[in-house]
Amino acid sequence: PLILGIESSCDDTAAAVLRGREILSNVVLGQTDLHAAFGGVVPEIAARAHAEKVDIGVEQALAEAGVPLSAIDAIAVTAGPGLIGGVLAGVMCAKGLAAATGKPLIGVNHLAGHALTPRLTDDVPFPYLLLLVSGGHCQFLLVRGPEAFTRLGGTIDDAPGEAFDKTARLLALPQPGGPQVERCARAGDPGRFRLPRPLLDRPGCDMSFSGLKTALLRTRDAVIAEKGGLTERDRADLCAGFQAAVTDILAEKSRRAIALYDAERPAIRTLAVAGGVAANGPIRAALQTLCAGTETHFVAPPLALCTDNAAMIAYAGGERLRLGHRDGMTLAARPRWPLDDRAPALLGSGK
Ligand code: ATP
Ligand code: FE
């Protein structure tokens, strides 16, 4: 079937058309310029921009796909979690299109979109282990089906994407910080500043990134106090030290998540990553190496499908459609929408 996907939960207005797993178009209208002066995403500005651009995005996606709206079989839209004004703009647009065409409307959880992306790009059977690392989230999930997720553990404070963005801000690099920190770190020495790796010695898959952020701030201030400012070299070394710490945390906790399932469910042979931080080269490389050493199949979607996009929403919507799911005009925009908040019995063992 032909699915139109719409995404507007953060600072990218996106629309895409998919035929099965074939991406006919994948339009992302970013808002980086609008938020640049504020050092982060301003919800009010984002909501207004989504309301202005969502129709344009949809038209562009249909045009690039060469498909008239009347040929679309279903309309999938991010219904949460995210900045509520933006989510509303997308949901309103999708409802309008569904009402006008009489085609089914399908609300999609943004995180499910990220979490199912490995199946859009690769032949990954259920169940698989997923590390979801994005701007607002960080968790290990067992993905059992398009609507079945079991959380194994995750961050107890900040998400790594947030930490990357904060690091960029502390070092006067532009937003979004992830790609900037990665680029800056290339010239850096990860060994010069040894930043902490919180919770690394604790059992389980939980992670913490807020201490790392604070340590980076202190280290930066110590350098400034000593030398009166930061050189390019200092910046590169700080970025490299920070990125190495995040990479070590994610790799070590991934090793534990894999080990957990090796013992308990030998059927699971794949670790996939998704979310904006999964676009990071050194993090991908570390997970690839880890998986090679544990005979685990590693799947990392292409960069453009890791960060926010509507192809993942169209794909997840298609999977829900296949399961018979339909939403009506009562579909609500949800600022919060956990994928799964049940504590799995499996983790009761305290591993
Ligand atoms: P969520 O999906 O949790 O609601 P979001 O939609 O804002 O949050 P994504 O678009 O999935 O997040 O990811 C954006 C985050 O990914 C930002 O914090 C950004 O800095 C980070 N990011 C993007 N590219 C990279 C990279 N190359 N290295 C590290 N982080 C990156
Ligand atoms: Fe996202």
Give the topology:
Layout (H helix, E strand, L loop, with lengths): L1 E6 L4 E8 L2 E9 L1 H4 L7 H23 L8 E7 L3 H18 L3 E5 H12 L6 E6 L4 E8 L2 E7 L5 H11 L6 H9 L24 H18 L4 H33 L5 E5 L6 H13 L3 E3 L3 H4 L4 H12 L29
Parallel strand pairs: 1-4, 4-5, 6-9, 9-10
Antiparallel strand pairs: 1-2, 2-3, 6-7, 7-8
The chain binds adenosine-5'-triphosphate (ATP) and fe (iii) ion (FE).
Q: Can you give a write-up of this model?
A:
Keywords: Acyltransferase, Cytoplasm, Iron, Metal-binding, Transferase, tRNA processing. Fe cation binds at residues 110, 114, 308. InterPro entries: ATPase_NBD, Gcp-like_dom, KAE1/TsaD, TsaD. Belongs to the KAE1 / TsaD family. The chain has 351 residues and is of the alpha/beta class. 45% of the residues lie in helices and 18% in strands. It is built from 11 helices and 10 strands. It has helices at 32-35, 43-65, 84-101, 110-121, 160-170, 177-185, 210-227, 232-264, 281-293, 303-306, 311-322, and strands spanning 2-7, 12-19, 22-30, 74-80, 105-109, 128-133, 138-145, 148-154, 270-274, 297-299. The strands form 2 sheets. The chain has a 5-stranded mixed sheet with strand order 3-2-1-4-5, sandwiched between helices. α9 (281-293) links the parallel β9 (270-274) and β10. It is globular. The N and C termini lie far apart (43 Å). Mean pLDDT is 93; it is low at 343-351. Bound molecules: adenosine-5'-triphosphate and fe (iii) ion. The site of fe (iii) ion has 4 residues, from α4.
